[in-house]
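PROTEIN DATA CARD
Card holder: Ankyrin repeat protein
Chain length: 108
Origin: [Myrmecia] bisecta
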Amino acid sequence: MMLLELSSDANARNEKQDMPLHVACSRGDSAIVQALLAAGSAVDALNAVLTAAGVSHATALALAANEGRLEAVKVLVEAGMDLEAREFFGYTALERAVIKEHADIVKT
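Structure generated from the sequence above:
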């Protein structure tokens, strides 16, 4: 994690308002998720993605659950992520996992 060690901002945002934590969770890289959390990444921050329905917001946990990234979900839950947080369409991460039929995440 050289860039984090050199004081890169763990909460920096890209044009979609994703932070590195959102990207790491979407990709399921639990080691990077752990490093970002240790560097102070805001665990409950929302991203903002423009969709046909408007601007969609989601937490890193909702993204990980939606993509079936079990290890990233585990890291976020252990870090104290708000399990009741709702994304733009009103779903919790658990509901996203159910919709996407990610049984391993539902059981976690």
